[in-house]
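note to self — DONT lose this again. spent like an hour looking for the file last time. sequence + predicted structure for the chain T wanted, 539 res
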Amino acid sequence: MRVMRRRVAPAAADVSAPIHLNRRALAMSVVFCVNLLLMPFKAYLSEDSPFHQTSATPPAALQPTLTSPNFETFAPPFLALLQDRYAHMDATTARADYFYDDAYRVDVYRHVVDLNHSPKALVLAFPTSLFYTSYDATMIQAHANGTLEDVEFASYVTFLDLVGFTLAAWVRRGNTMSGSSGKANEYTIYLTMRIIDVPYFLICAKFGMRCLLCLATARYFYQNYYRAVRRLLHAYRRTPRPAGVSHLELLIGEPTDFVLTNGWITLGYTMDCVQSLQYVGRAMSRASNMNIELTAGLIALVYLSRLVWFSYLALIGLSRVLHRRQLAHLYVPVDSLTIAALTAINVAVFLALTATSYNFLSVFATLMQSVVDAQNAQYQVDSTLGLIFFASFTSLPPLGLGFVLAYWSRWRLPQRAPLLSLRARVLLWLCGIRGMSHAAKTSIVPYLATFLASHPSTRANCTLSHEDEDCYLVAYSKEHTVLWVRRLVWTKTLALQRATSWVTAATRDATSPVAHLSADVQHDACVTMGTDDAYEWIY
């Protein structure tokens, strides 16, 4: 039988306890929540929508299988048919470098390249050369007999069958787009991409799964985060405040990283990203030569969700590894500032590499063209390229931070008190809060109290996250000075479990009582405030 503690109010308590909620942090958490919920549906910019289906059926000649005899040699009748059909594409049209055959459902591209007496340059000139294996490159060059004089060859590459597409490629001498063949080292690459239809019931099933995933995530958000914050506010508003406290402020974190630590939700969103892989080949080939103005704003909008997703996964995964190896505590809170910095770094690095190494800027241009131009609505593509490229670049900044932190912590003994996060160290160092003892630096609460007291305007910009830096209660005096800071802790499922106050022994007195918040089976929450045997229960 559960024994109830005696209700004893702290001395000089005031029943009115105004709490100021950091509404900016709450609004930011809602924005990230909405972005996460809409992320799967953004994929329909690149995939076949269940509400826009075509009845066109490609001819039987263009429906071969991997075991078909036409696909076992480098000169199949199917390839000869394509070469004859597209040998004389109209060069006077606005899109002479691109043609979509609606009857055969084939994308055709032309790209003029100067080989400079290098057969290897011919292979690298293909827009999909990034996916070529050494065998593919060897076979293409071997079929060209290794000479530029006999470069008009035919090759059939089947490696893209793994992602649902089949690419046929061949090269003709001269610039067939302009009709000129005067330049000796100038050649035109032809590319054809066969579009594979997905059964309609699979499209509908994928759409239904995404709806269920988003609804489940929204329910998880509400039950385990927003309702928990509401209960926390309600409990503390009913709690008498100690003497000397004018008002309290609740600094809440951004909950997306907690949601992504849920294994089922993480698996669901990861599988949703993988389902879009089949559209990478089509997107790259379609965008290889189109000259469309780049729209940076739309690029950021379309790629934001995938970028944030991989940032979260990389940060959470690396922090768990470092924590398990006792190299550091859960080290970096994932909040709006972190994501903004990662986005800026990743976009800058990616654009710099693509501008100097690959002709992928036109890929992005075509992606944006597909979004804004209704004429090419049937070719809409989305952030499937980001699934490959941005995943690599997004993991670099947190990986670098992890190595730096591991280097800093290599001689540090494990401590029970949590270490300051890297972000907190940088912010406090920039704001001039230095010279504190090593013991004080092992806990963020004295640091945070000093930081807020020195820079009260910064309170509106504090968004804290991760398990050990997710929610703080700050007490202010009538002079608006910080009296104490308490860290509120809950589990991964965000059920309210306990609240601890990390203050030094000298400050643990009647003006800075210890507070505990725990879950209760029969009631919503239980708050105890006071010292020794003085408790106040709030239900």
